[in-house]
């Protein structure tokens, strides 16, 4: 029997996942604990506008298979939502998700390395007005996180770490800097060490992810990963 679920607290982690690795999993699980999330959704991008022309970008179905394998036995949902919905930019993806799931609350998860180029994202100020943002520290970027261009505008909206689990009560824009355990794992380093990783990753047929389900009507088991 279908059940109507209460509001879910969901973290959104977008990226190429080229490939997905233990670092993605660890920061997702750590963010769940720090922010009191019910789930983290990995939004595997069909093509990052800031990485156009990258010669080492694996096919989308391979990257999805990599993400699904890494997300096993965790409250992490892997989705090709952007490919299916035809959204190219994060601002459009977030707006579409909010319309699809008006009863849930979303927070965008971002590594400190991505904050460096955040001002280049399409309509980045509008994105901060749509959802709060949690910035997760990355080795080599922490000390400069507050000095990046976007923080000149975002600084006034920074929330203290002590309020991390209260994010659903915030009015956007709101940003929090999370000092989670460091993880040096890097997709760039993995590709450099093993440039043929994608040849061993077997795309698999997976059930449609939770974000494809009807509004407000979900099975409790759909809140767990495959």
Quick gist of this model?
With 226 residues, the chain is an alpha/beta fold. It has helices at residues 22-35, 60-70, 81-85, 90-100, 112-115, 124-130, 151-154, 187-193, 197-200; strands at residues 3-4, 9-15, 39-44, 76-79, 105-111, 133-136, 158-159, 175-178, 217-218. The chain is built from nine helices and nine strands.
Structural commentary:
The chain has 226 residues and is α/β, with parallel strands linked by helices. It contains nine helices and nine strands. The strands form two sheets. It has a seven-stranded parallel sheet. Helix 1 (22-35) links the parallel strand 2 (9-15) and strand 3 (39-44). The protein is globular. Mean pLDDT is 81; it is low at 206-226.
Write the layout of secondary structure elements.
Elements: E1 3-4, E2 9-15, H1 22-35, E3 39-44, H2 60-70, E4 76-79, H3 81-85, H4 90-100, E5 105-111, H5 112-115, H6 124-130, E6 133-136, H7 151-154, E7 158-159, E8 175-178, H8 187-193, H9 197-200, E9 217-218
Parallel strand pairs: 2-3, 2-5, 3-4, 5-6, 6-8, 7-8
Antiparallel strand pairs: 1-9
């Amino acid at each position: 029997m279908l059940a109507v679920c209460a509001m879910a607290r969901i973290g959104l982690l977008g990226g190429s996942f080229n490939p997905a690795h233990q670092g993605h999993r660890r920061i997702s699980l750590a963010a769940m604990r720090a922010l009191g999330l019910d789930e983290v959704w990995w939004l595997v991008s069909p093509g990052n506008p800031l990485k156009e022309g990258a010669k080492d970008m694996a096919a989308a179905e391979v990257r999805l298979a990599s993400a699904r394998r890494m997300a096993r036995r965790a409250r992490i949902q892997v989705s090709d939502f952007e490919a299916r919905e035809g959204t190219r930019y994060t601002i459009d993806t977030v707006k579409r998700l909010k319309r699809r799931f008006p009863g849930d609350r979303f927070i965008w998860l971002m590594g400190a390395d991505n904050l460096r180029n955040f001002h280049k994202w399409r309509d980045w100020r509008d994105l901060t007005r749509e959802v709060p943002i949690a910035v997760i520290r990355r080795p080599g970027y922490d000390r400069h996180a507050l000095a990046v261009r976007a923080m000149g505008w975002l600084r006034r909206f920074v929330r203290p770490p002590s309020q991390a689990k209260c994010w659903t009560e915030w009015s956007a824009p709101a940003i929090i800097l999370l000092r989670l355990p460091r993880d040096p794992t890097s997709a760039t380093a993995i590709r450099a060490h093993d440039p043929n990783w994608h040849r061993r990753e077997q795309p698999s047929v997976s059930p449609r992810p939770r974000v494809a389900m009807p509004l407000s009507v979900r099975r409790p088991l759909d809140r767990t990963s495959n």
